[in-house]
């Protein structure tokens, strides 16, 4: 039988996850990749296609050539958007009714060694 204290001393509810940023243009995606607080949902099929291909290659991971192609594709995407996507974002995909595919990028937690360049402090600017 449950006592009254079982009801009073419950854990507080978890906070809601942040609302994702929805992007449908390249410029919006580039700007969204500069923040790291919210997930990014890529609405445009054409814009999401390269991320979906990269995800598919990573999931297959059949042989060294596949890894090489995926690494090359990841590097090209990173250069295109000015961000190391796989180092700073989890890449995922989901399918809506009607076979509408969406790509979602979720920020990875940071450690001191892996901060993106724009969040790192420069040694030239530090006070001694």
Instruction: Report the uncertain regions.
Output: 122-128
How many extended strands?
4
User: Strand order across the biggest sheet?
Assistant: 1-2-4-3
Tally of contiguous helical segments: 5
| Number of spatially distinct domains | 1
Helical content class: 25-40%
Radius of gyration based on Cα positions: 20 Å
The structural class is alpha+beta
Give the overall form. Answer: elongated
Overview of the molecule:
- It contains five helices and four strands; from the N terminus they run H-E-H-E-H-H-H-E-E.
- It is an alpha+beta fold and 128 residues long.
- It has one domain (17-125).
- The longest helix is centred in the middle third of the chain and has 18 residues, at 64-81.
- It is elongated, with a radius of gyration of 20 Å.
- 12% of the residues are buried.
Keywords summarizing the entry:
alpha+beta; four-stranded mixed β-sheet; 4 strands; disordered C terminus
Helix and strand topology:
Layout: H1 4-8, E1 21-23, H2 26-32, E2 40-42, H3 45-60, H4 64-81, H5 85-88, E3 89-96, E4 100-107
Parallel strand pairs: 1-2
Antiparallel strand pairs: 2-4, 3-4
Helix pairs in contact: 3-4
Explain briefly what this protein structure is:
The chain is an alpha+beta fold and 128 residues long. The protein has one domain.
């Amino acid at each position: 039988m449950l006592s009254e204290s079982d009801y009073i001393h419950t854990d507080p509810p978890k906070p809601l996850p942040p609302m994702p940023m929805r992007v449908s243009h390249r410029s919006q995606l580039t700007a969204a990749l500069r923040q790291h607080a919210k997930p990014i949902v890529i609405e445009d099929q054409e814009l999401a296609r390269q991320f979906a291909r990269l995800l598919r290659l990573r999931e297959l991971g059949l042989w060294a050539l596949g890894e090489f192609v995926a690494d090359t594709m990841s590097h090209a995407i990173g250069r295109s958007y000015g961000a190391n996507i796989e180092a700073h974002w989890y890449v995922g995909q989901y399918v809506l009714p009607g076979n509408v595919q969406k790509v979602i990028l979720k920020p990875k937690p940071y450690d001191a060694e892996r901060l993106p360049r724009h969040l790192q402090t420069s040694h030239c600017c530090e006070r001694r």
